[in-house]
Amino acid sequence: MDLIRTFLRVFADTALDVLPVAVFLLFFYRVVLGQKLANRANILVGLALVVLGLALFLQGLEKALFPVGRMMVEQLTRNSVVTAEISHWASYYPLYVFAFCIAFGAAVAEPALLAVAHRVNEITGGAINAGGLRVAAALGVATGVTVGCIRIVTGFPLQWCLAAAFMIVIIQTFTSPRRIVPLAYDTGGVSTTAVTVPVITALGLGLAEQVPGRSPFLDGFGLIILACVFPAITVLAYAQVTALLEKRQLRKSMAARTAVSIGREN
Fold this sequence. Notes:
By secondary structure, this protein is mainly α. The chain folds into 2 domains: about 1-80, no CATH class; about 85-265, no CATH class. Helix content is about 80%, strand content about 0%. It is built from 10 helices and no strands. The N and C termini lie far apart (about 90 Å).
């Protein structure tokens, strides 16, 4: 019964949050564009489904995902060193492996990343492989989350982690193929949406609660920004490696053609 009451309260709050957006769109469509709504019933049903879906999603986060994240982190850190005086960041290595794997899996499953990867593959005529782009972006998310977990354990300042990551991105920007740079920047955003963000948030808050001397508010956040930055690094690296391999293959082809031409002349 308490669960039903909580869900109804979340549903009402979600409806109030969605209402201003719906009113603005309706106003813009009717007043600015001067158009009449077609299929009003479908639109109302769609809005109701949006509110219901968001309410279920938020309820699931609160009742399942966040508690499960805290429980998993607690289990993984139970056998680690738990005294602040002798705690060492390397003693949490099972957690780092878990964080890398769960972040990689969540990023690969992102619907937005999947859609963008396939769209890019279509636009480029197959020049950019959809699977390679997804794996590169997911590796970036996983690396960023792992670095963020190490930061939480060690207490290393977040700003220095970001400064180093952005410095790498800037250097790669000037050394990568220009056609891939805007896409690499956007992969961080499409790789951290509905699936990844709740998982990362639950992981960060759970870890900050378990590590001695860490505050969930001060240290538990920051994983998402790292998960957004590192995909740019890995996608740019993927483009650099691909370009290098293409140049090497071209040189081999040219060398083979030259050898054949010399053989014919002789």
